[in-house]
Amino acid sequence: MGVNTEIIIGIVVAVVVVALLVLVVGLVRARRRRISLRDTAGDPTQAGPREVDRSGGYTAGGGFNFSQGGAATPTPTAPAPGEKPVAPDRGEWADLPERTETDGQPGVGDDAAIPRDSAQRGMTDLSLPDPDLYDPPATPQDPDTAADEAGTTAPDDLSGLTEAPAPVRIDEIAPVDGRLHRLRGRLARSQGVFGKGVLGLLGGGDLDEDSWEEVEDTLLSADLGSATTTAVVDRLRAELATASVRSAAEVRELLRSVLVAALLPDLDRSVRALPHADTPAVLLVVGVNGTGKTTTVGKLARVLVADGRRVVLGAADTFRAAAADQLQTWGERVGATVVRGREGADPASVAFDAVAAGVADGVDVVVIDTAGRLHTKTGLMDELGKVKRVIEKKTKVDEVLLVLDATTGQNGMAQAKVFADVVDITGVVLTKLDGTAKGGIVFHVQHELGVPVKLVGLGEGADDLAPFEPGAFVDALLG
Ligand SMILES: Nc1nc2c(ncn2[C@@H]2O[C@H](COP(=O)(O)OP(=O)(O)OP(=O)(O)O)[C@@H](O)[C@H]2O)c(=O)[nH]1
């Protein structure tokens, strides 16, 4: 072998060694950039962040947050009497267009297509507490009740009101503190979308345009709405491009903070249910029929009674007797007095009577359950407007809660907007979140209606109502 051959072999070996070195360095760098879904906790070679705070800042001792109408920090959306609501301060989300989806607004909603005299849907049996826990009613049926049931009293005649006999003992209420946290398992279907779907995609590393489109589609499939989806995706893209996000925990934390921010966590979500000096707090509960209004009124009354409040429930859904019966069952179950008129009575008259009874008895809270079964927007406006006006002859309405069924998605939104146009809604109760993969509707509702989601329904049980708290909710969504 000549000297030239040795030199050539030397050069080839040197080139191979250099090529190998370049390859190894490249691989190490690529690996660092890649986001891994592996949990790095406990792995000393990975400087992952500390354990995520799963409480999401949810106040352990807070439970439900009740405030006094007018005395609470004014919600950006809380209108003064006679004023239109002011849109909430959207902070860094201010760029989002307002009310993006305006197509397909119905007259009143699907319900508008159902004639008043058509067959009504059946009643759902409420599971009542164990009979042993109840003592029999202290008194036999009030003669006025019998008169009312016979339909012999005028609806606005106070003697025709039925007062549910207050039970001596009611079944024990589940603790209210940290309910959303405890009920997180109920969001299992939505967890699949956010906790697995979105997190899985983001954790796949090196996201190309197709992957981002998939993230977008996944968020849209959870009913986040197009405007919020775009804003969330833009924010994620920007953060992932600049921040040194590597581990699964860091990706989760990033997604968490972006979603929490999109829920406008600074909105006042307290329910104005604390009494004034001389008058009770008055809450009006509105929404399309079947969304869970009566159930929500019952669950809310239960929390208030457990909080030591004296509560009157007004059955202003007078379209069918069964609705008032359902409310009365709740009243007996939770220890609240129920004021009702006969079927077909003027809802405003019943609402007035309930508030009058509440004022006379010096109770703390009056909650009025209304009907959502109305033909036209004008009809709805007339009826709800009248209910509110008539109540305000006695005292002010502190809170108008719109109940919205999370499973109805965009249809529900269109209906909700009609209600929002008709009455000044001060808060939303989103029910049936336990039965849907579309937990993203919470984001959409707030964005479209401009009012905070204050409470969420997570089941049919008496204690399946939780105060809405953005951090705890997002933690529950991410699983
Ligand atoms: N899964 C689930 N079901 C709920 C929830 N809230 C209410 N429901 C159920 O939804 C159904 C309708 O609830 P209602 O309270 O009767 O609804 P409504 O709006 O008062 O209806 P109308 O009286 O017809 O106007 C009932 O079967 C409730 O048990 C919830 O958070 N989760």
TrEMBL record:
Compositionally biased spans, kind Basic and acidic residues: 86-102
UniProt xrefs under Pfam families: SRP54 (PF00448), SRP54_N (PF02881)
Disordered, as annotated region: 40-166
Subcellular location: Cell membrane; Cytoplasm
Residues that span the membrane, as ranges: 6-28
Main enzyme class: hydrolase
EC number annotated for this UniProt entry: 3.6.5.4
Record flagged with keyword Membrane: yes
Keyword set, alphabetical order: Cell membrane, Cytoplasm, GTP-binding, Hydrolase, Membrane, Nucleotide-binding, Receptor, Transmembrane, Transmembrane helix
Binding locations of GTP: 287-294, 369-373, 431-434
Record-linked PANTHER family: SIGNAL RECOGNITION PARTICLE RECEPTOR SUBUNIT ALPHA (PTHR43134:SF1)
Name of protein: Signal recognition particle receptor FtsY
Species per Swiss-Prot/TrEMBL record: Williamsia maris
